[in-house]
Design brief:
By secondary structure, the chain is an alpha+beta fold. Helix content is about 35%, strand content about 10%. The chain contains three helices and two strands. It has a two-stranded parallel sheet. Helix 2 links the parallel strand 1 and strand 2. The longest helix is centred in the N-terminal third of the chain and has 13 residues. It is globular, with a radius of gyration of 13 Å.
Length: about 80
């Protein structure tokens, strides 16, 4: 869980999005167990790339999800639009 490492290193705000329920529950458990107020856990439908409710990010780390998409470039394009730089 990279979000825990980033939060522990002083990131102001960390958002973790998990596609699987068990990983989402793990994120919630670790967040609560370590009292990480700077971590937010979501379980969106990752196939819905129109996640306009998300704000701009400085960094987006994508791991283990692209191979689930028929067209991963659509997701990568959306991610590029969600970054501040």
């Amino acid at each position: 869980m990279y979000s825990v490492c980033l939060a522990g290193q002083g990131a102001k705000e960390v958002v973790e999005m998990e596609a699987r329920e068990i990983e989402y529950q793990r994120c919630l458990f670790v967040k609560e167990s370590l009292n990480l107020s700077n971590v937010t856990c979501y379980k969106p439908d990752v196939r819905d790339v129109n996640m306009d409710w998300l704000c701009d990010f400085d960094i987006i780390f994508v791991g283990g999800i692209l191979y689930h998409f028929d067209d991963p470039f659509t997701l990568l394009k959306k991610i590029s639009e969600m970054t501040a730089y």
